[in-house]
Design goal:
The chain has 169 residues and is mainly alpha-helical. The chain is built from three helices and three strands, in the order βαβααβ. It has one domain.
Length: 169
């Protein structure tokens, strides 16, 4: 059982300083998410538990239940958003790649029927087809990899069992 531990000064370390609503409605802070991202970045083992360490005198079991529920719900939402973005990125890259190939096929047909107008079209269509193919490949290879890494990160966070624990324990 691998675990990841984060030290907190108070429950507010989890949430954005700009959001003063109740714990159930507050958004998890980007600093908290970034700290989780950095903590997971160089780990070789995949943790299954997240321990949020807090001084014993500041702990409140009722508030912790609400916070855990809120964190889980927000991580689930972020995972869904990231997964939708991953699917959109894949589809966009595929559409660009196929469009480029169709333009390339049109270019080949234009060359077959050589006239002045077709030569002019070839000058326009050929660079457009190459550009569209390379852009599609760029999206499929590089952009998709970044979005997939983000989705994998949120999937890992969503699967964690989150608990509060006393610092002194």
């Amino acid at each position: 059982m691998a675990e990841l531990s984060l030290w907190l000064d108070s429950y507010d370390d989890i949430y954005s300083d700009f959001d003063s609503r109740h714990y159930l409605k507050r958004r998890v802070s980007e600093d908290f998410i970034d700290e989780l991202r950095m903590s997971l970045k160089y780990r070789t083992d995949k943790p299954d538990r997240l321990l949020l360490l807090l001084p014993a005198q500041l702990r409140n079991a009722e508030i912790e239940k609400e916070i855990l529920s809120s964190i889980k719900e927000q991580l689930k939402d972020r995972l869904q958003i990231s997964d939708e973005k991953r699917k959109r990125t894949w589809l966009q890259g595929l559409k660009l790649l196929i469009s480029g190939m169709l333009l390339m096929a049109a270019d080949a047909f234009i060359v077959y029927k050589a006239t002045y107008l077709n030569t002019l079209l070839k000058v326009i269509v050929e660079p457009a087809s190459w550009f569209t193919i390379w852009t599609g490949l760029d999206v499929l290879i590089y952009d998709y990899r970044k979005v997939k890494a983000e989705t994998d990160f949120y999937k890992c966070l969503h699967q964690l069992h989150i608990h509060f624990k006393d610092i002194s324990a």
